[in-house]
Recover the amino acids of this structure.
């Protein structure tokens, strides 16, 4: 056990985590040249296309150190984006140390701070690695000073590397073996293992990734999942090297996977404790803090026949990503579907894309919203997830909306634009300090303003230099109203939203203008209205297709033409009463991507 090292690689987005993982695997001979490809551990198509890590991945490496000993290194490559911080916290709880990668051209970014604080919460030993030293813009002494000033980590022995060029990789491995402590555990004690991750394999059923704390996990033994109170026989035990490789047992401190014939997806809950049925451990492990979804939206199948398929797909996907939630719901416009909760907009996009690709589903997604607390006059407190479920305003005493504390690190040149954007989003500045030549701004912002386009606009006005991280800060009372969108006089429940009273008119006008461009013309005029209660606050009209009924009249009396036009008018009036407006499925999300004007 003294020769085992469990560590996670943490960093801000694009600072080189996955590339460093590639080089460590190559150096230790885990993959040969023929099998190697860049971002080896990013196995999903979406990860490779977007160039981001979404799922934390594990690999076991064997490294012969300079002291002559061979060490077993269990590496975890983690995501960098704020929406996937739940993946990071899960990985950190299975390790004793972290390798913090900092880009020597960019320095400390918002997500660098967030991930370091998470690692320190787990009492990790941290190895500081400065990457991209081969680039002309690299400034190693300045970045070392920044890490010491901002994070407070000693950088005198920070490892300087270029993961792309393969420079300094052996120094990283040596630092890991020297600085990161060996795991603690007792192999004679009853089995105690942490369920770190689980996913559904069409051939093998449910595969679970475990970290053994005490005891020995062997194939053939009967295990009990303490949370689910279920017993299963272990069929296979193995490790990722990075290919799955069967082993006879997992000892204390080791990370590997087990296949135990778990059929029900709900039983393999992430954070559960695994123990032996005959000789159970007395205390379960603390597990993980449950993730709190902050963005909610409804997902419906385009074809109602696919409802059951969507339900099964969500269950399988939830096993692989426990940080989103779902519950059934119905909509007048869209039929049966599910109300889902996510950790952010990127998380929502990724889940939607995975459902469409991995499970071949055609989906309609409604307007994203956040959770509001509604205090009724009869002292009840309701959690409102869906704007269309809002109770009658006469019975509401007050509405509270969720706020976040956002940390933005931005070069001085763009600071004015960032402050202007935060003020526009009803933000309240709480702090402004300097990290070298860059400003660290802390703002309290309402989450519902951040959900739609804040991140995109932040990136565009700072030319990509600003970095952003946030955490929930609690609820605050505000004047919130429900805004309905009416198309041809009928409320479209999928587009209902809750907005601040002061922004309602601007938001309504923008939305009506967007829908006017997105909804195709019909044979009759279509009014699009935004309304609060019975008061219409904005309106646009889609003009009708015009058929020239007077084309066949040449010369003659004007009354004949007038008669034909009157007849056409009557027909259009009747058509408007009985005609249905067909709204294309992609309209809902497209309409909500507001222009920054």
């Amino acid at each position: 056990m003294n020769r085992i090292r469990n560590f996670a690689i943490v960093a801000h987005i694009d600072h080189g985590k996955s590339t460093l993982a590639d080089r460590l695997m190559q150096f230790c001979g885990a993959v040969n040249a023929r099998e190697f490809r860049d971002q080896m551990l990013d196995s999903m198509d979406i990860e490779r296309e977007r160039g981001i890590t979404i799922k934390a991945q594990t690999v076991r490496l064997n490294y012969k150190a300079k002291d002559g000993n061979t060490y077993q290194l269990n590496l975890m490559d983690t995501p960098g984006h704020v929406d996937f911080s739940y993946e990071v916290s899960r990985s950190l709880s299975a390790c004793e140390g972290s390798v913090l990668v900092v880009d020597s051209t960019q320095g400390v970014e918002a997500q660098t701070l967030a991930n370091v604080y998470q690692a320190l919460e787990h009492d990790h030993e941290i190895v500081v690695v400065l990457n991209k030293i081969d680039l002309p813009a690299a400034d190693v002494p300045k970045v070392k000073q920044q890490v010491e000033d901002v994070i407070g980590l000693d950088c005198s022995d920070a490892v300087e590397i270029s993961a792309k060029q393969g420079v300094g990789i052996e120094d990283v491995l040596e630092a890991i073996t020297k600085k990161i402590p060996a795991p603690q555990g007792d192999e004679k004690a009853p089995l105690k293992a942490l369920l770190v991750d689980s996913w559904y394999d069409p051939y093998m059923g449910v595969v679970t990734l475990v970290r053994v704390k005490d005891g020995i996990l062997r194939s053939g033994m009967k295990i009990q999942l303490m949370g689910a109170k279920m017993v299963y026989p272990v069929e296979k035990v193995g490790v990722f090297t990075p290919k799955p490789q069967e082993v006879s047992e997992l000892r204390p401190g080791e990370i590997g996977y087990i296949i135990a014939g778990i059929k029900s997806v709900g039983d393999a809950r992430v954070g559960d404790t695994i123990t032996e049925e005959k000789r159970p451990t007395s205390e379960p492990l603390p597990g993980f803090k449950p993730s709190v979804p902050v963005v909610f939206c409804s997902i419906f199948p385009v074809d109602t026949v696919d409802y059951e398929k969507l339900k099964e797909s969500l269950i399988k996907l939830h096993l692989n990503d426990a940080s989103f939630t779902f519950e059934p719901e119905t909509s007048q416009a869209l039929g049966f579907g599910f109300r889902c909760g996510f950790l952010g907009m990127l998380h929502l996009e990724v889940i939607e894309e995975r459902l469409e690709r991995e499970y071949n589903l055609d989906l309609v997604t409604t307007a994203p919203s956040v959770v509001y607390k509604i205090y009724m006059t009869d002292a009840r407190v309701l959690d409102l997830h869906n704007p269309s479920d809002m109770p009658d305003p006469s019975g509401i005493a007050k509405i509270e909306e969720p706020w976040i504390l956002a940390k933005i690190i931005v070069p001085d040149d763009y600071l004015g634009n960032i402050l202007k954007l935060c003020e526009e989003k009803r933000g309240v500045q709480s702090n402004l300090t300097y990290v070298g030549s860059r400003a660290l701004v802390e703002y309290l912002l309402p989450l519902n303003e951040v959900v739609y386009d804040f991140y995109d606009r932040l990136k565009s006005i700072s030319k990509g230099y600003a970095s952003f991280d946030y955490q929930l800060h609690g609820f605050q009372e505000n004047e919130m109203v429900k805004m309905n969108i009416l198309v041809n006089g009928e409320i479209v429940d999928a587009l209902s939203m809750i907005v601040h009273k002061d922004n309602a008119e601007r938001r309504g006008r923008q939305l009506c203008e967007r829908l006017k461009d997105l909804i195709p013309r019909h044979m009759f005029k279509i009014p699009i209205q935004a309304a609060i209660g019975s008061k219409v606050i904005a309106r646009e009209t889609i003009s009708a297709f015009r058929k020239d009924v007077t084309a066949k009249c040449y010369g003659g009396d004007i009354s004949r033409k007038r008669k034909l036009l009157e007849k056409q008018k009557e027909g259009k009036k009747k058509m408007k009463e009985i005609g249905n407006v067909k709204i294309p499925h992609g309209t809902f999300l497209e309409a909500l991507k507001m222009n920054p004007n």
